[in-house]
Design a protein that fits this description.
Length: 281
């Protein structure tokens, strides 16, 4: 009887623990809603299909046999090496699979790697040119969006899949929020750029822009620094000075006069101190 109760309690605890997300454990529970929104856009939302063509229908008919088969839109398993965060790959990644190179031999493992090239892109908002590693699909998406900035601002984080792209997107949003100060030398150009891209600011609040593009480790470090700044101890000399000023005010003594008296007393004591510095006159 006791063992069954223990097992039931263990099952209940396991269910409770499984229900907890990463935002419910430790310091992560203090992450703001702004970062949770970015995390959902980055890690929870399903990215657009890149390496296969999804079909809308649930069933399809075989042209040869006429047999009706179910449609299975299963994404291909993708490998994202660390080099993907140093460029903009347009949603592409490394595909791991098998290749049958000879009909008489067994299939062998094979990796399909996207073709990478170095090119220069221009950011109108940042008023600069950037040399980045891209793929043909990334170049096509930039052209389809009529500009590098439009591509970054319109594409969700799950499709960008690159820390470089996310950091640039955050920098562009900060620049727009501040009114495009990099174009301050030309007010007409500054107004033109701001009017063209200001519509993207309606999708983000200043707090969401502040937390946008941070990795999980960077977000936890930011929370830790905020807590440390809020709980920073006050030096005792500041507390004693404040208490002294309040007591002087309560006694009707001018704090400024008292400070001058203390200074004069200190200077008199310094003359009597044999180890103090002598005034060279």
């Amino acid at each position: 009887m006791a063992s069954s109760r223990i097992q039931a309690t263990a099952r209940q605890l396991s269910k409770t623990f499984k229900k907890k997300s990463r935002f419910d454990i430790g310091i992560a529970a203090e992450l703001p809603v702004a970062y949770k929104k970015f995390w959902r856009e980055w890690k929870v939302l399903k990215p657009a299909a890149v390496h296969y063509i999804p079909q809308d229908s649930k069933w399809k008919r075989d042209d040869l046999t006429g047999e009706t088969l179910p449609v299975q839109n299963i994404p291909l398993p993708l490998k994202q090496p660390h080099q993907i965060h140093e460029g903009i790959w347009g949603g592409e990644a490394v595909i791991k699979g098998f290749q049958k190179r000879d009909p008489q031999k067994r299939r062998v493992p094979h990796y399909w790697v996207p073709v990478l090239k170095r090119t220069v892109v221009k950011s109108d908002v940042l008023n600069t040119h950037l040399s980045v590693t891209v793929t043909d699909r990334a170049i096509k998406l930039i052209n389809d969006h009529y500009g590098f900035d439009h591509y970054l601002l319109k594409t969700p984080a799950c499709d960008l899949a690159s820390m470089l792209a996310l950091k640039l997107k955050k920098q562009i949003l900060i620049e727009l929020m501040n009114g495009c100060p990099r174009h301050a030398y030309d007010p007409a150009k500054q107004k033109q750029i701001y009017d063209e891209y200001k519509t993207y600011l309606s999708s983000y609040t200043p707090e969401e822009i502040e937390w946008y593009g941070l990795t999980w480790y960077e977000a936890l470090c930011k929370v830790a620094k905020i807590k440390e700044a809020a709980n920073k101890p006050i030096p005792l000399k500041n507390v004693y000075r404040k208490n002294l000023v309040e007591k002087l005010k309560a006694a009707g003594i001018d704090a400024k006069t008292s400070a001058e008296d203390i200074t004069s007393t200190t200077s008199w004591l310094s003359k009597m101190n044999p180890f103090g510095k002598k005034d060279e006159a």
